[in-house]
Structure formats: structure tokens, C-alpha cells
Amino acid sequence: ITGTPGRTDSEALATLHRIFGYDAFRGEQEEVIEHVVAGGDAVVLMPTGGGKSLCYQIPALVRPGTGVVVSPLIALMQDQVDALRALGVRAGFMNSTQDFDERRVVEAEFLSGELDLLYLAPERLRLDSSLELLSRGKISVFAIDEAHCVSQWGHDFRPDYLALSLLGERWPDVPRIALTATATHATHQEITQRLNMPAARHFVASFDRPNIQYRVVPKADPKKQLLAFLREEHAGDAGIVYCLSRNSVEKTAEFLAGNGIAAVPYHAGLDSGTRAAHQSRFLREEGLVVCATIAFGMGIDKPDVRFVAHLDLPKSIEGYYQETGRAGRDGLPSTAWMAYGLNDVIQQRKLIQSGEGDEAFRRRAGAHLDSMLALCETAQCRRGQLLNYFGQEPDLTGCGNCDTCLTPPETWDGTVAAQKVLSTVVRLQRERGQKFGAVQIVDILLGKRTGKVIQFDHDQLSVFGIGQDLVEGEWRGVVRQLLAQGLLAVEGEYGTLVLTEASGEVLRREREVPLRKEPKKPATSKASGS
Ligand code: ADP
Ligand code: ZN
């Protein structure tokens, strides 16, 4: 029981018992709620599943007037409102999915003070008509959910959020609470500044999710590796498998189903009826696996998700943390498992370069990817890296519940190997002006006389066959780690490998290159692709 004695008769606590049926506040909830109920502004950083909703729902119920909740998750508003109504809370929402009459009903309820909570999409709130409507009613609190959407540096920027800075000017007496699960120190500052909340009190909950075990395995034959992981550790468990493309979502779901695992696909290309059906099966049934693009999971509240698996590399640590955070909300042991390989790095770099967006956008996306790669390649505690990224103090002795803590990876001096790769790139790029990707480089190092090697006379190069001390999978690991360390770069749509400024330091022997040892036999598969 967390409540401070003497406060246990507070209205907030009474509301927690009476409406929500919970015994006690969790973590920082009580402090946040007391602060907002008293009229203060708050910026709340709490991991997914931490219990952010109550932080604004209870103040909305305790203070006179309607709590206005700004949320970008339009698809979830109906569910949220239904759930609140089932508890006897007078809730409504306004968004583009409603027709005129439905909206009129909600407007009338708001104006006559019959709503405790009103959910609004941010694009609604920009409209003069909405602002005018709000000024005719009584507002108890403004809650800005998913507040990181205001950050232009974040991974989920939504321009409509910028307009929310005017709430404080228009309603100086109404407390505001901004909430997010994904924020680095920089994003945190940006939220405060852009939402114009200089006087807000900051509540930062720990981002540690000690019951989640973080693991990254080298990608070989990802579907088979996944199947083995599920059979060995999560038979009959509910979980989410994230893939980058709709196609691989479909294929993975079919593959699992074909191997006796209850699995369904979920992506934006499916019709909404199928999506809704799969989502509700996931919530209701035990032990269903959903294979999904990142479209799935936002706002899904299923406490017993036992694993989250990534078959492709997430674009940022924020994304990875949010997605893996859907596991183990009930606090029981859960696994965040990811298969990651060279092609992930190349593919993501290509995506960034060939994608839309200006130079600044590309640089930002590149920086997000770099942090993600550093997490994948680290020989240190993964939890420590995650917490560090979010500006929190990790336990320096390691967490004991991630793969690198459980089986510390061996490292080796990869300087010579790195020089061999980089010299090959030099031969092709600088001396011959040719563009080749990782496959050709590795074939040359291994001394393979493939059609493409013969065609370009690459068996005549001095570096041909100088890499027979390592096997193909190990060379791919070297290339992958060089890419992750910024000692090699990818260019153009074919994934040409090119040197970076830092490559020169390695070639001139001014810099050592420590590398992680690749496991000789990636668990559960003999394939060596990827
Ligand atoms: P977030 O929005 O931070 O991801 P939610 O507000 O959806 O988290 O809460 C996550 C889950 O925890 C929900 O099922 C919620 O009902 C539950 N929860 C929140 N606060 C408490 C509490 N004080 N006691 C028990 N359960 C709680
Ligand atoms: Zn660890």
C-alpha cells in the first residue's frame, strides 16, 4: 500500500476505490494526481503500462468541470470511452469518425456540464469552432496524451500538436498535464517548451521494466529461429511478433499457423473488420500470437502479453522500447526477443536515404538508427543502455536479466579484419570507381569465384581471398558491426558500401576496432543468409 498516512481519506483515493476499484496508487500516480487536483501543471514521463490514464482521469473526476483529453489515437477513443462508461464515468469523444448528429449530442452534454471527460483529436482542437465550444463550457483539466508528438526531433511528430501551446494562454486557470511514455531528456525539454509549460512540475517514473528480459540474436533464418524460441520458451503464450512489411507479416503468420501455433496477421492493408476481429481475439483468447506491423499495439491493454518479438530492426530506441513495453504489463517474467542481421542495417540505411524528407530529417533518422544499432551491438548490459538512452541511471553492475548479462559476449580485436574489409572497399571504390554491396565484398574476401567476381575481374585484386581465416557469417558480422560503428557507410539504392571519414583512421592503423564475436552456430538454424 503506497498512500501516505493522513492522505488516505483524500478524494482522489476515494475515487480510485469507488470508480476504478483499485486498492492503492502505483508509483508516482498519487503525487501527480494531488498536484493536478490542486491546480498545478505537470509533465509526466511514465513507461507504457505505468498507469498514465488515471493521472488525468482522477483529477477530471475530482475537479469541477470536464476534463479535456487530447489524444492522437482516434481509433481507440470509442473503446476508451466505452470502458469509462462501463465504470459509470460520463465520457464522450469528438473526432472525424462521427457524423454531425453524434457530435451535436456530445457538444450538448459538454455544454450542460454532463461530461466528466471529453476526448478530442488534436486536429479538432485547432478549429476555431472547437475552441469556441470549449470556451462556452467548464473545463477541469487539459490532458495532452502522447505528448512526445509535439517534438520535431522525436519519432512521431504531429504538426497539430504545435497548436496546443495556446491552451495555456486561453485557459490560464485550467491545469494542464502532458503525458508520454517515450522521451529522452531532449524530447522532455522540447515538450515543456513547445507546450509552453515552464511552470510545470516534472514527474519522471523509472523506465526500467525489470520483468522484461531483453535479448538480441543474430539473424539467420528468422522464422525458424522464432518458431524455436516460441516452442522452447513460450508455448501457448500470447505475444506479438513485429515485422517491417505487410508481406512478411502475412508470411510469418502463415508459417507459425502451419507449425501449429495459433497466429493471425495484423496490418493496415487488411480490412477494418478483419483487423478488429484479430485484435479482439488477441484480447480475449489465451495464447494467441499476433504478427503485426507497428500499426498494432498502440493503446492495447492486455496485461499478460508474455513476449514481443522483432523480426526486423525497429527504427529507433523509442520505438523498440514502446513496442517491447507491451510485454509483461502484469509484472510477470516476459521476453523481448529480436533477430537482427546485416541486411537490417543496410535496408534501414537505404530506406533513410531513398525516403522522403529533407537533409535534416535524414540526419535525425540516421541518428535514431545509430542509437538502435549501438543497442544491438553492445557487449554491455542492454537494460543499462536503454536506461542510459532515456537519461536514467542504470545499475552499473548489470541487470542480470538480459542476454549480455546472462552470457557475456566475447570480444576480439577486429582491427585486421576491419582493415581487410575497408581495403577491399578502397580497391573497388577508389581505384576502379565501382559500386558494390556487402555480398560481393565478402565473396572477394573469401576468394569465391562467383559469376560476378569473374565478370568484374575481382579475382585479380590483391585482396582476393585474403579473408579465409573467417567464415561467411563472421564476415557479415564484421561488415554489420563496421556499419554500426560508423566505420563504413551505405550509399544509394543498391546498398553500395562506402568509406567514412573514420575509415581512414582504421586503414592508417590509428584506431583499433573491438568487435563482438559472432556465435559460431546461431541458435536453432544452420542457414547462413541474411
Ligand atoms: P499507460 O497509459 O501508462 O500505458 P494505463 O493507464 O493504460 O497505462 O494503465 C495500464 C494498466 O494498469 C491498466 O490496466 C490500468 O487499469 C492499470 N492500473 C493503472 N493504475 C493502477 C493502480 N493504481 N492499481 C491497479 N491497476 C492500475
Ligand atoms: Zn543486463
TrEMBL record:
<feature type="compositionally biased region" description="Basic and acidic residues">
    <location>
        <begin position="510"/>
        <end position="521"/>
    </location>
</feature>
<dbReference type="GO" id="GO:0004386">
    <property type="term" value="F:helicase activity"/>
</dbReference>
<keyword id="KW-0413">Isomerase</keyword>
<keyword id="KW-0227">DNA damage</keyword>
<keyword id="KW-0238">DNA-binding</keyword>
<feature type="region of interest" description="Disordered">
    <location>
        <begin position="510"/>
        <end position="530"/>
    </location>
</feature>
<keyword id="KW-0067">ATP-binding</keyword>
<keyword id="KW-0479">Metal-binding</keyword>
<feature type="domain" description="Helicase C-terminal">
    <location>
        <begin position="222"/>
        <end position="377"/>
    </location>
</feature>
<keyword id="KW-0378">Hydrolase</keyword>
<keyword id="KW-0234">DNA repair</keyword>
<keyword id="KW-0347">Helicase</keyword>
<feature type="domain" description="Helicase ATP-binding">
    <location>
        <begin position="33"/>
        <end position="201"/>
    </location>
</feature>
<protein>
    <recommendedName>
        <fullName>DNA helicase RecQ</fullName>
        <ecNumber>5.6.2.4</ecNumber>
    </recommendedName>
</protein>
<keyword id="KW-0233">DNA recombination</keyword>
<comment type="similarity">
    <text>Belongs to the helicase family. RecQ subfamily.</text>
</comment>
<keyword id="KW-0547">Nucleotide-binding</keyword>
<keyword id="KW-0862">Zinc</keyword>
